[in-house]
Amino acid sequence: MNEPDTPFEEPWQAHLFALTVALNEAGHFTWSEWTALFGRRKRTVDETYWAVWSDALLEMLERKRLCGASDVAALAARWQAAARATPHGQPIALDAAPAGDA
């Protein structure tokens, strides 16, 4: 049987996992808080595993007043603008987004 090299199907899933671990290690929430929230959402929401993970992390960020959904949406828009402004094959840098382009 061929086992995958990683439990992640896409790079963003690994990044999301790493972000969650980093926030936990920085003391923003305990792992017990995280697993309780994620487990509850996973049982009650009919979404993919990583969609539930993402939604649960956003909920945790809002609960802990670290940021809200509008902050995440604004940052995502900035990254998308930076991606559009970055030449193909070059690393995307957030500061590559033109001012006001979101």
Automatic annotation (TrEMBL):
Per its UniProt entry, which superkingdom is the organism in? Bacteria
Provenance organism: Tranquillimonas alkanivorans
What InterPro entries does its record include? CN_hydtase_beta-like_N, CN_hydtase_beta_C, Elect_transpt_acc-like_dom_sf, Nitrile_Hydratase_acc_put
The coiled-coil segments of this chain are: none
The record's annotation in Gene3D superfamilies points to: Nitrile hydratase, beta subunit (1.10.472.20)
What protein am I looking at? Nitrile hydratase accessory protein
Boundaries of every Nitrile hydratase beta subunit-like N-terminal domain copy: 5-82
Q: Name one Pfam family in it.
A: NHase_beta_N
